[in-house]
Specification:
The chain has a domain at 36-85. 16% of the residues lie in helices and 33% in strands. The protein contains 2 helices and 6 strands, in the order H-E-E-E-E-E-H-E. It starts with a helix and ends in a 5-residue tail after the last strand.
């Protein structure tokens, strides 16, 4: 089977975008998965997502609960797992 035959009939997936807002300038916008970063820590205090506001350039960091983690990882956001030091 050729590569072309194996992928025949497959459609390309639409890029995933996420709605976000900046707490500094109060703008609302959509971001591609590539514009977000997710850090998963040992607790809810150390699990967050971050991005740079496309309007004002502020570095934004917001907490990420279980549902947000699920949505971001499912949408292809790059994830960093933080390890605790004992």
């Amino acid at each position: 089977m050729t590569v072309a035959a194996a992928f025949a009939g497959m459609r390309s997936a639409a890029p995933v975008t996420f709605k976000a807002g900046c707490p500094d300038c109060r703008e609302r916008f959509e971001l591609a998965a590539s514009a977000l970063r997710l850090a998963i820590g040992a607790s809810s205090r150390t699990t967050f997502y971050s991005f740079t506001c496309p309007e004002c350039g502020a570095a934004v960091r917001k907490p990420a609960g279980e549902r947000i983690v699920e949505l971001l990882t499912g949408g292809g956001v790059r994830t960093l797992r933080l390890h605790s030091t004992l």
